[in-house]
């Protein structure tokens, strides 16, 4: 059995791994773990990852979770071109800084927008209070500003003239609100231009294929939602109040 | 000017950076940034154009943020012993795997206690009991996962040797201990792990690094902490509002 990647492309972390593997022609078996059906909680998947998180990688007997770890592993094992994770000490450190910062600064608030704009109203029938929505949107604006100032500056990509793991991770995460029809790129032409460059570098066909499930999320019949997942969403709504 | 590290030892990631640099004999100028005095939001304490956070590294003109990035940079530049950030593909992947999980489940969660018990009261804010309870539950869940899924029967979190992962984890756990929550007394496996990490680091270095945070509750009781300046209030209130 070759390399297996356990993924649901609804998750930004999964999209980063999928796009990277496909772009670099890394052969793998796509193991679909349906988040909406709660399959990440299944007994079978717990044997792969007891933490019940996606993405996971299985390479022979070696099982690995956490998208940053998986990306770095794939990058190195399959000798991806060096621009993905540049060897220069300072340039690499900037990628490492972004990868550390993004968990709370980008991934989390972008994911919250999707919950607020689509998933919570769709599943619970209730809207999140406007005040909380405004707070999250303000936080996102602030962090996108920091992203431009610290990571983009005047460059084409985060590390300079080429795409890197940092651009890939940044973009898939910033795409998450699109699932709820919210476009964070409208606010800044600099950001929109960077977005286009990253998409072109990946290849629009691969990029949009990876985002298809997210883009179609609004059409999903949520009556098929796993009750356990629904319970956790209701719980999440409570935290937003 | 050589390497400068902008740190406040009240901060968990700052302690990880400090302890790593000291343990490895990396020469640096310590630039203390006192969070309680709001120095991170005042001009002149941090390098120009920095986000108002610590730790920060400045190496000539090169400025770097985020403790994990700083630790990796230091380990590479100063060629520290392999075990800290192992060169082996799978061993290194395990360190990143831990650090990824840590970013979501430990970071932030383990820092809340300083806010609820010290910082919020200093500006006259009371964090709701519901949030305090929720945080304790999150801390307990994370500790169980740390013990079962990462440590297991191993000597250290990702292997049989100490790595950057152990430093990051230790300092977060020490934060909670310093603020009065039992972590080690009821968890012998974690207590044994802590003992092993501290044995590698050395008792003196641990004492030096941990004493500011370990003294914080006493300082609160003796009313030795001055209230933070008004310019720090806005960012503090924002941070408090984000406690889930």
UniProtKB/TrEMBL annotation, chain A:
Source organism: Myotis myotis (Greater mouse-eared bat)
Gene Ontology MF, one: glutathione transferase activity
Domain GST C-terminal: residue ranges: 88-218
Entry EC no(s): 2.5.1.18
GO biological process per UniProt: glutathione metabolic process
Subcellular location: Cytoplasm
Superkingdom of the source species: Eukaryota
Protein name per Swiss-Prot or TrEMBL: Glutathione S-transferase theta-4
Record field: catalytic activity: RX + glutathione = an S-substituted glutathione + a halide anion + H(+)
Source lineage: Eukaryota, Metazoa, Chordata, Craniata, Vertebrata
Subunit structure of this chain's protein: Homodimer.
Gene Ontology, cellular component aspect: cytoplasm
Family: Belongs to the GST superfamily. Theta family.
UniProtKB/TrEMBL annotation, chain B:
Biological processes, Gene Ontology terms: glutathione metabolic process
Keywords, sorted A to Z: Cytoplasm, Transferase
GO molecular function: glutathione transferase activity
Record-annotated GST N-terminal domain positions: 1-82
Subcellular location: Cytoplasm, Cytosol
Keyword hit for Iron: no
SUPFAM superfamilies to which the protein is assigned, alphabetical: GST C-terminal domain-like, Thioredoxin-like
UniProt-listed Enzyme Commission number(s): 2.5.1.18
Regions that span the bilayer: none
Residue ranges occupied by any GST C-terminal domain in the UniProt entry: 88-229
Nucleotide-binding as UniProt keyword: no
GO cellular component: cytosol
Principal location: cytoplasm
Catalytic activity: RX + glutathione = an S-substituted glutathione + a halide anion + H(+)
Family under the similarity heading: Belongs to the GST superfamily. Theta family.
Subunit structure as annotated in this protein's UniProt entry: Homodimer.
Name listed for the protein in its UniProt record: glutathione transferase
Species this chain originates from: Myotis myotis
